[in-house]
Write a structure and sequence with these properties.
CATH topology of the largest domain: Transferase(Phosphotransferase), domain 1
Shape: globular
Distance between the termini: 101 Å
Structural class: alpha+beta
Number of domains: 2
Strand order of the largest sheet: 1-5-6-4-3-2
Oligomer: single chain
Length: about 300
């Protein structure tokens, strides 16, 4: 036997006889409504897509980017901290909760930014959603309070009723959204009819309504944030939303519901948000904190 020749027969091919496979991109698609949606989600994980996208929000909790074409939005949460890793192990991350909540409300016919795909990369989870185009409900309230709203009074009145009806529809699923504030609702306008549709864009905080007061809590949340931003809704809009939420119930029932809402608002701490949701620039820092030494303002003081 020649020197150096192995006694083991060469029944296996050499180690590098076949082409070397391409390195993995470390992108794992957890959920997708279609193969096309999975391809779009995989593209959002690339550096080229993120460089071309516009940043809507970026802080220590999450980053929100919209594609250059304006068709999809990618919301990314970090998952490197111990708590996030634990939630990832039990399948209760922000992205998964948003996915399940949006699918639940979509099945109930409630307008949401429909999720397209959910992907996981090292240290991050990203939810890719349909982009909702239009101003936020908080922006509509702020513009109306300053006399520069693009929508007519009749449109805003119908919108207020639809916002209340949306609360009633969510409560009918025996759930409530703990973060049901106007800055998380985008007002989409139908170019053909001009009808306005409130579309929910953040559903991470959807929870079971075990105490059966979720509707009142959501209506209170819809007012607390505008009060903190000095643009509370007018009495007319509040009553229209209450009528929509109570399905045109008798006046006595509406008064009872309103007392509950007033109680929730009056017991809420300082309503001023930590980050200004009306700022023109992306939310990268706390910009709406009260000045040092300022006394906390009760929410109900600006209600009437």
């Amino acid at each position: 036997m020649p020197v150096g020749q192995s006694k083991i027969p060469r029944i296996f091919p050499p180690r590098y006889a076949a082409p070397v496979p391409a390195p993995r991109d470390n992108v794992r698609i957890l959920r997708a409504v279609s193969p096309e949606a999975a391809a779009i989600a995989r593209a959002t994980a690339t550096a080229a897509w993120r460089e071309g996208a516009r940043v809507l929000k970026h802080d220590h909790r999450a980053a929100v980017r919209i594609a250059a074409a304006g068709d999809v939005v990618a919301k990314t949460w970090p998952t490197r901290k111990p708590k996030a890793l634990f939630l990832r192990c039990i399948g209760y991350t922000h992205a998964l909760r948003h996915w399940r909540s949006a699918r639940t409300l979509d099945a109930a016919g409630i307008a949401t930014a429909a999720p397209l795909a959910l992907l996981r990369t090292p240290g991050e989870e990203t939810l890719v959603m349909r982009a909702a185009h239009g101003p936020t409900l908080l922006r509509v309230l702020d513009d109306a309070a300053r006399g520069r709203c693009a929508f007519t009074f009749a449109q805003r009145r119908a919108l207020a009723f639809d916002v209340g009806a949306q609360v009633r529809a969510i409560a009918a699923t025996r759930r409530f959204n703990r973060d049901h504030k106007p800055s998380n609702i985008v007002v989409e306008a139908d170019p053909a009819t001009g009808a306005l549709t409130p579309t929910i864009i953040d559903l991470v905080a959807l929870r079971p309504d075990r105490q059966r007061i979720g509707g009142a809590r959501m209506l209170a949340s819809l007012m607390i944030e505008p009060i903190g931003c000095d643009c509370p809704p007018s009495r007319t809009m509040r009553m229209r939303a209450l009528k929509g939420a109570t399905d045109n119930a008798p006046r006595v029932a509406r008064k009872t519901a309103w007392r509950m809402i007033e109680l929730l608002i009056s017991t809420h701490p300082d309503p001023r948000p930590e980050v200004d949701p009306l700022a023109a620039e992306p939310h990268t820092e706390r910009t709406y904190l009260p000045p040092p030494g300022a006394q906390p303002r009760k929410a109900h003081e600006s209600c009437d």
